[in-house]
Design brief:
mainly alpha; Amino acid/polyamine transporter I; 18 helices; transmembrane; transport
Amino acid sequence: MTKSKVFGSTLIIAGTTIGAGMLALPLASAGIGFSTSLVLMLGLWALMAFTALLMVELHQFADSDATLHTLAHNILGNKGKWIASFAVMFLFYALCAAYIAGGGAQFNQRVMQLTGLEISSQLTTLLFTIIVATVVTIGTHSVDKVNRVLFGLKLVAMVLVLSFLAPNVTSQYLLSMPLQQGLIVAAIPVVFTSFGFHGSIPSIVRYLDGDVRSLRKVMIVGSALPLIIYVFWQSVTLGVVSQEQLLNDSSLGALLVSLSQTVQQSNLSMIVGVFADLALLTSFIGVSLGLFEFMGDSLNDKLGQGKRIKTALVTFVPPLGFALFYPQGFIMALGYAAIALAVLAILLPTVMVYKVRFTQQPSSQDSSATVYQVAGGKLALITAGTVGMIIIAIQIMISGGLLPSLG
């Protein structure tokens, strides 16, 4: 496997993970403090890296172009297929609709700033979607090339932001303790969703031709990069703005104003804005690639000629329609994204691996072949599945008003 493909795949995983939701991490962590948020991030990263490796293990028993739809059907039957399909479509369509709505608005602002022309938000949203759809439809190779450029620019913006903030960190702020135990529990879904990249795994498996050694490296390094960046980001934001300031106004705009005033840098808001643009764009590309591959696999027998164009229409038209005409419907659905992600990234991989290992012998497995298995055995699978159920329960309790809502 070429090093270039492995490097590009690693950046796709990292770019999908480091989305605009990263900007919400300091707001979600305001009431629990830096040290507690650090423990949550480490624990949830380990969980998501573990289940990503479970997906690599599962893909050994299927063709390299198989998606979660195919895996679930082969291992769990029709019920598993429908659960996987619903989780993927709910999560990806909701995310794509939010990214199109947010990205279209930001694209409109950039066009106005650069040209001075006032263009309707509907037109810029349409253009923004067409550009991303074109890159995704061409294939994972084009996504790889574009994502490398965007990820590089995003890192530059991130380094600039950190360099402005780091000298102003106050150690006393970083030592703040959780204000109440309920806030720790309520922060878990927000931190959990900030490590979500599993929908892109089938596309990466296909791109790397199912090479297990390369895939293991991509999953571990690609998910570890966001963790490292998150730790730095949390340390400088929570170390610059006091816990009281963050809790008084938990909006992104207020956070940017507080950061700019503290470091006395008026350009900071602009740089963070550029970073947010790039974070949203790389996440949108990664998520839409995963949805594109999933829809192509699900509808393979029904598409006929012009498969990729038809798949692109099925992938992008529904979220574009909602983003243009009823954005609040999908934005509200994002509150439940943690539930769909828990099903997609934790419950399905653990259940499928459990069944493959302990209740059936895959026909594609040659008894003399060496098959990769993730360490941890039955206990690790049960523990991961239990945590997934807990995350779902927490999100339901937040939605029902039994736990405080963050942000």
